[in-house]
Amino acid sequence: MIRKLTENYPFELLYDADPAKEIVAEYLRRGDCYGYFEEATLIGEFVLLETRPKTFEIMNIAILEEKRGQGYGKKLMREAIQIAKKAGAKQIEIGTGNSSLSQLSLYQRCGFRITHIEKDYFLKNYPQPIMENGIQCVDMIRLAYDK
Asked: Could you say which of 47, 54, 93, 99 is the most buried, measured as most Cβ atoms within 10 Å of its Cβ?
């Protein structure tokens, strides 16, 4: 079950997807955080933010580590798309690091297409280096869904 969260944000999951606490705080202030629950257990979360008229961005999405690889990410992506569409979205965007290989694959399987790359985004906006899959996270890969 998806539920909009207005307090008790799942910071452990939020920071797992985005380690920059100041950036997370900013998009939580401006956007809406949703939790995916099975019974009373939080399995995952995502944050939606209207960035421009009729354009929403999935700012953060994360699944509990022990639940990854079981289809929850795809389920959360579908929920985020549906919520954004119900709110009037004509386009939904998402960004991920060049080193986030499984996320990049998931987003494309869900119908997102690469639109552009923001070079050096993580070098300019994150104080600590981020390493994933043996690769330094340097560039932001931007994707959009407009079906």
From this structure: 47
